[in-house]
Amino acid sequence: MTIDQSRGIRAAQAGLLVNAVLAVIKVLAGVIGNSYALIADGIESTADLFSSTIVWSGLRIARRDANTEYPFGYGKAETLAAATVALMLIGAAIAISIEAIREIVTPHHAPAPWTLAVLVIVVAVKEVMFRRVHAVSAKVGSEAVRADAWHHRSDAITSLAAFVGISIALLGGEGWEEADDWAALFAAAVIAWNGQSILRPAIAGLMDRSAEPAIRERVYEIACSVPHVRAVEKVIVRRAGVDYFADLHVHADPMMSLREAHVVSGKVKSAIRTTLPNVRGVLVHMEPFEDEEAGSRKPEAGKERGG
To answer: What single DSSP character describes residue 210?
Structure first.
């Protein structure tokens, strides 16, 4: 297991523990304190509990070594986990919206004032969790861990919305009881937005969308710096979880022997993998260099190297 994977798994495990405790506290407080916004918040925390479990499982699978059945490894398990978490967020938002609308049209009592204290604690805890897990996701480059971080932020937002709604219901008095439910509806909209923002890059990863331009440009520059490389073109890089796979065409002296070309190819692979440890696989196509202009022309960053 790599250090990055260990960090991601520890972040998911911490999220499991925190979400389990908060989900129970919020649902019980919502039922006893007559606050649907707090109950909705507890439902979101329950979704967080399942999402952290999914992220943990996805990262554990993604760390497996490649084999004959999966020659490119299990990296996409991490991306699949992110997509699953995003769909759970959207599903939770829909469920909360339906119930919030039902509560809005149904007369009920105002929430208990003490529920506000519960929400203050929840917002503080979840915001701290978001910042810590998001920092981990930035270090390891994991979409699944990032999704888990935003799940914590979503929970903090729903709790804050519940706080505002309950406060309005209490200050407004009779006739303002629905403010609590409108807060739950607003929270659902925020959750749905976060869900779709996580889902889009996850789907792109599952469909082998090209890696970010900075990575492709770096691969190109490293390959060009290898001795005896005359030109580089058709640099294609795709992402699989936290790892990358690169495919590029390298031009060398046409008078080289096959063995010499093979050595140059190996040096290119070694240079790329040494400089960029997250590039797990490099496929180099050796070609005879024939165009003098191509050797001195540097392609634009982020675009496929034509040829």
So the answer is: B
Among 86-95, 150-159, 203-212, where is mean pLDDT lowest? 150-159
The DSSP code for 247 is E
Tokens of 261: 């070309």
158-172 burial, b if ≥16 CB within 10 A, otherwise e?
bbbbbbbbbbbbbee
Question: What domains lie within the chain, and their CATH numbers?
Answer: 3-206 (1.20.1510.10), 213-296 (3.30.70.1350)
CA angle 145, 82, 236 (to 5 degrees): 95
Q: Cα–Cα distances in Å, from 234 out to 136, 174, 208, 251?
A: 33, 68, 16, 11
Q: Give the containing element (helix H, strand E) for 244.
A: strand 243-252
Nearest partner of 133 among 239, 9, 2, 278, judged by Cα? 9
Q: Are 224 and 246 in contact (CB under 8 A)?
A: no
Neighbours of 225 (CB within 10 A): 12
Query: In the structure encoding, which two tokens stand for residue 12, read together?
Result: 């998911």
- The pTM is what? 0.64
The CA-based dihedral angle spanning residues 88, 92, 95, 100, taken in that order and rounded to the nearest 10 degrees: -170
245-257 pLDDT tens trace: 999 999 999 998 9
* Pairwise CA distance, residues 140 & 78, whole Å: 12
- Separation CA 7–CA 242 (nearest Å): 13
The token pair that represents 5 in the structure block: 């994977």
Helix (H) or strand (E) holding 139: helix 115-140
Task: Tell me the residue length of the chain.
Answer: 307
Q: Is residue 268 classed as helix, strand or coil in its secondary structure?
A: helix
Residue 185: both structure tokens together = 């509806």
pLDDT digits (tens, 9 = 90+) for 77-136: 878 888 888 888 888 788 878 878 887 877 666 777 888 888 888 888 888 888 888 888
Q: Determine the Cα–Cα distance for residues 213 and 221; give it in Å rounded to an integer.
A: 12
